[in-house]
């Protein structure tokens, strides 16, 4: 599927770019003690920052840009404190759509070091290796992450914080942390002159409600650089079907809900450069049909993931 396949592989998700190898423990980390909760506390002689103790209900709101983002804002909420660390939920369903589509690392179970966990409770991405200090580094298997202390962006302007960076042959991943914020203030993934993913913190706050989800069926995908393709499936026990669709160059992606659905057919059509859209449609009984239409040199893609919502 020519260049599009390269783009998708680079993006799915941020997980590919972020890597999944375990971080090596530096000598400085080994020298640090732990507080009663098991969190790292820096040696008082080191100019370093320990993992934060987050309060349930705290939230961060980001603006997402880049190839696979819509420019919309989403919120990450500290939903629960768990034995492993925390559960990061959304404030509303719309906050989770791109996470459901791409397996992003901003939402879901995380360790006390704020690294996302897999279903077995293992850290699947090493965003942070606390305590952080200037000059620290760790190996993620596909490259070295380096830490630099310096100004980082926050909603109130630049503050002293930490910049983590991993470089590749033709790009880089770079993310920033500020102690008072207690989480990411920016994350960006760049290849060549193209920004595939970028999130910028726009505000922090407190949330009284949160939501999470459970996948309750297999994901369905159809499309690519093809004149037309179609498939159908019948979700079971799903509250919603989350749709992600991309198109370019007069490509269109179509979703036809079952006849019993109280929703109109859904379409994403793009005349020019590649753009993506997301939605969550209620899931009545019956078969859904997904199809794409495109010229021979156009692109169209649509995916569907059935989910059940988890709300307190």
List the helices and strands and how they pair.
Layout: H1 2-11, H2 14-18, H3 27-31, E1 33-34, E2 40-41, E3 58-65, E4 73-81, E5 85-90, H4 97-102, E6 108-111, E7 137-139, E8 144-152, E9 159-168, E10 171-178, E11 183-191, E12 194-206, E13 212-215, E14 220-224, E15 228-233, E16 240-248, E17 251-256, E18 266-270, E19 275-282, E20 288-293, E21 299-310
Antiparallel strand pairs: 1-2, 3-4, 3-12, 4-5, 5-6, 7-8, 8-9, 9-10, 10-11, 11-12, 13-21, 14-21, 15-20, 16-19, 16-21, 17-18, 17-20
Q: Care to give the gist of this entry?
A:
The protein contains four helices and 21 strands.
Strand share of the residues?
Answer: over 45%
CATH architecture of the largest domain: Clam
What is the count of DSSP helices, taking H or I runs of 4+ residues?
4
User: Briefly, what CATH class of the largest domain?
Assistant: Mainly Beta
Strand element count: 21
Cross-sheet strand order for the largest sheet: 6-5-4-3-12-11-10-9-8-7
Radius of gyration: 21 Å
Low-confidence stretches: 1-45
Mean pLDDT: 84
Q: In terms of structural class, how would the helical and strand content be classed? A: mainly beta
Q: What is the ordering of alpha helices and beta strands?
A: HHHEEEEEHEEEEEEEEEEEEEEEE
CATH topology of the largest domain: outer membrane lipoprotein receptor (LolB), chain A
N/C terminus separation: 43 Å
Structurally, the number of domains stands at 2
């Amino acid at each position: 599927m020519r260049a599009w396949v390269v783009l998708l592989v680079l993006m799915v998700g941020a997980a590919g770019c972020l890597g999944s190898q375990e971080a090596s423990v530096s000598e400085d980390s080994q020298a640090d003690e732990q507080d009663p909760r098991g969190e790292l506390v820096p040696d008082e002689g080191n100019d370093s920052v320990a993992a934060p103790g987050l309060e349930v209900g705290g939230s961060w709101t980001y603006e997402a840009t880049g190839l696979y983002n819509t420019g919309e804002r989403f919120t990450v909420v500290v939903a629960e404190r768990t034995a492993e660390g925390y559960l990061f939920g959304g404030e509303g369903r719309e906050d989770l759509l791109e996470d459901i589509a791409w397996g992003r690392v901003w939402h879901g179970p995380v360790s006390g070091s704020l690294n996302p966990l897999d279903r077995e409770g293992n850290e699947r991405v090493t965003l942070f290796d606390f305590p952080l200090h200037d000059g620290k580094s760790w190996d993620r298997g596909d490259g070295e992450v380096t830490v630099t202390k310096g100004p980082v962006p926050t909603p109130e302007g630049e503050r002293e914080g930490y910049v983590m960076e991993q470089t590749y042959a033709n790009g880089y991943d770079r993310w920033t942390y500020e102690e008072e914020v207690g989480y990411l203030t920016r994350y960006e993934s760049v290849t060549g002159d193209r920004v595939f993913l970028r999130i910028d913190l726009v505000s922090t706050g407190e949330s009284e409600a949160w939501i999470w989800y459970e996948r309750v069926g297999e994901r369905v995908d159809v499309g690519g650089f093809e004149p037309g393709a179609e498939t159908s499936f019948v979700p079971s026990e799903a509250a919603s079907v989350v749709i992600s669709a991309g198109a370019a160059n007069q490509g269109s992606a179509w979703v036809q809900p079952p006849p019993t659905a109280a929703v109109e057919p859904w379409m994403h059509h793009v005349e020019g450069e590649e753009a993506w859209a997301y939605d969550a449609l209620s899931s009545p009984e019956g078969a859904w049909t997904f199809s794409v239409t495109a010229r021979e040199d156009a692109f169209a893609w649509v995916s569907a993931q059935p989910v059940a919502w988890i709300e307190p």
